[in-house]
Amino acid sequence: MMVIINNKENADRIGDYLNSLKVSYQTYNTTESIIFEINDTKNVLDNKIIESFEGVLYVTPLVEDSFLWSRKNKTEDTSITLDNNYTIDNKHVTIIAGPCSVEDVNQIEEITKGVIKAGAHILRGGAYKPRTSPYDFQGMGKDGIVLLHKVKECYNIPVISEIMNINQVEVFKKYVDIIQVGARNMQNYELLTALGKINKPILLKRGMGATIEELLCSAEYILKGGNKNVILCERGIKTFENSTRNTLDLSAIPVLKKLTHLPVFVDPSHGTGDWNYVESMALAAIAAGADGIMVEVHNNPMYAKSDGIQSLNLEHFNQLITKCKKVAKAIDKEIL
Ligand code: PEP
Ligand code: MN
Question: How many angstroms separate the alpha carbon of residue 170 from the centre of ligand 1?
Answer without folding.
Answer: 21
